[in-house]
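On clarity, I found the account of how folds are encoded harder to follow than it need be. For illustration, here is how one protein appears when written out as sequence plus structure tokens:

:::
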Amino acid sequence: MAIVLCTLAVRLVLLPLGIAAIRGAKARTELMPKISEITKKHRGNPDRAQREIAELQAETGTSLFAGCLPLLAQLCSPSSPSFPLPRASTS
């Protein structure tokens, strides 16, 4: 029972991060057509394309890397299946 309560508590703490990650993913999905248009337009000048993409992100208030932190926090949480747990000694 304690494990279930602990898992629920961790999930509740991480819920706002998950919501932020979902919102960020939606915003990035909406920006992708504009970003691909910019990269096609400035195919020979990647510096210019990067500058325009940064300007687009500043205008919309989004970041392509903003979704990484909430997902990383969820991955490293103790309730995550990939969380490294100590192994029992067999000797």
